[in-house]
Design goal:
- This protein is an alpha+beta fold and about 130 residues long.
- Helix content is about 45%, strand content about 35%.
- It has five helices and three strands.
- Strands 1-3-2 form a three-stranded antiparallel beta sheet, with helices on one face.
- A hairpin with a 5-residue loop joins strand 2 and strand 3.
- The two termini are about 20 Å apart.
- The relative contact order is 0.21.
Length: about 130
């Protein structure tokens, strides 16, 4: 269950500020937090997480409440190089950076442990804990 956004036109350094806020949290908490966040990268993350949740529902029949953000990666994308005129006919380079955003979701382990304990099979619960 993952979703990828490539070549998002904002520098990775700025996008990582948002990524670090949402790592390891539940989906409902993340949606609430991103809706009130002032950073520009919050909106693309909202769409990306919605896409990852839709992938989880459609492909794996998972419930939105049982999901959490396992991993968020912000990698460096392409860098567009532009020039700015400077004094005496020289020029300096301006780097317009892009980012690749990757969100990985996973199912909460608590639900798996509850299912195992309902069956009253302690061996199965121990095996799940060890994994």
């Amino acid at each position: 269950m993952k979703a990828i956004l490539k070549n998002y036109r904002q520098s990775p350094r700025k996008v990582r500020l948002v990524a670090n806020l949402i790592k390891g949290k539940g989906i409902s908490d993340v949606e609430t937090e991103l809706s009130f966040l002032v950073k520009r990268a919050a909106a693309p993350f909202q769409k990306l997480i919605a896409s990852a949740v839709a992938n989880a529902k459609h492909n794996f029949n998972l419930d939105k409440d049982d999901l959490y953000i396992k991993d968020v990666r912000v990698d460096k994308g392409i860098v567009m190089k532009r020039m700015m005129p400077r004094a005496r006919g020289s020029a300096s380079r301006i780097n317009k950076r892009t980012s690749h955003l990757i969100v990985v979701l996973d199912e909460k382990a608590n639900k798996v442990l509850k299912k195992a304990s309902k069956k009253d099979d302690k061996k199965e619960a121990k095996e799940i804990k060890e994994k």
